[in-house]
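Course assignment 3, question 2. Fill in each field.
Student: A.L.
Task: Predict the tertiary structure for the chain below.
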Amino acid sequence: MPTAGGAAFSYTLTVTNLGPSDAQNVIVSDPMPPGIIFQNVSVTGAGAFSCAGPPVGTNGVVSCTSGVLPASGTATITIVAQVVPNVASGVRTNTATVTSATTDPGPAVNLTSCDDASVGENADCARQDIVVTAPLSITKAGPATLCAGDTYTYNITVFNGGSSTALNATISDQLPLNTTFLNYSGTGAFANSCSHNGGTPGTITCASVDIPSGLSTLDITVKLAPGAPSGALSNTATITSAGTGTIAVGTSTTTATVNHCSDLEITKDDSPDAVLAGEDINYSITVKNVGPSDISAGEFVVNDPTFPPAGTTLKTGTVISATGFNCNGTTAFPCTATAALPVGATATIKYTVTVNANFNGGQPGGFVANTASVAIANGVNALDSNQTNNSSTTNTPIGPSADLSMSDRSGRNLLRVDLP
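Answer field:
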């Protein structure tokens, strides 16, 4: 029956003295074949044999001695051995011999095969058919969600479900687009046997490795580009060769949903800081992407819900100036981004209003209040990680203005007073 690499089995040696005399100083010798290691030895029957083998778990010679094996006496020696896990398949032949100080009248040793031994010969052999049992399965895991710009780790596990080592196996992982390889670490077969090919993003390969029974793991750390597109990001690890093993599960894919995670910060400024009724206010709205992800066109919206502010009108002959936005053309909010906003970049919207001449009934103490806000658009794979800086308000003091004059009946100006 075939024996799998890594499995234990037994050799049974039967030593018989066919007589007519007692056999003196009997020695049984059994060298273990290559790839077979010793575990233990026991003996029963006649002769009071004493046995010893090499250190447990090593290859060597098992030797048993007896001072006297009586005529017609039989001893049975059982050797428990094990096939080393990292052995190639094939036949191993084990030959045992017995000698004695007493003359042996039996036939000479004539072993041309293990089937040739005849009764009375003092040597015999056994063939052991060694097979490799190493079914390999690969599993890949990673984050379910990511932000563009994140650093994260893929976890690869290869399970050898057999007792044998899979010799000269190879696994590979072509890293996904928009990632940059940073480092890797492994255990078991992958502790010191993998490499990155230096490409961008490149491929990790663990070539011609010996994969023992159980689990071997590989962790690969990459950085996702801040400008990576949102949506699904898949990556597959593959057993490209099982070597002397077999492939049970040869590929594994993990898929993450990439979001654009951007801290959008908005600031609204007025110029000048105070005006008179009838004068202009220049507004400037600035949106900054604090990161960590670039944000794409269509993924954020700027709003100015009171545009134009109460008590004002859009200055005659002007429009909303907003490069990289669509503000319902150029005349009204909200303004939807039509260009990407990379990490650290800003985008600006400007417009000018004219304060009504009779603002606040001409009374002092009035001001124009105006608030602008920024938000992620609906239905996109984007997130704003900090919403405490998504709005900004300006309060512009407005002073009353009056142009009073006095004239006589001829129309001459006698007095002109400008207020305030």
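Instructor remarks: DSSP finds no helices and 32 strands in the chain. Residues 9 and 81 are 6 Å apart (CA to CA).
Grade: pending
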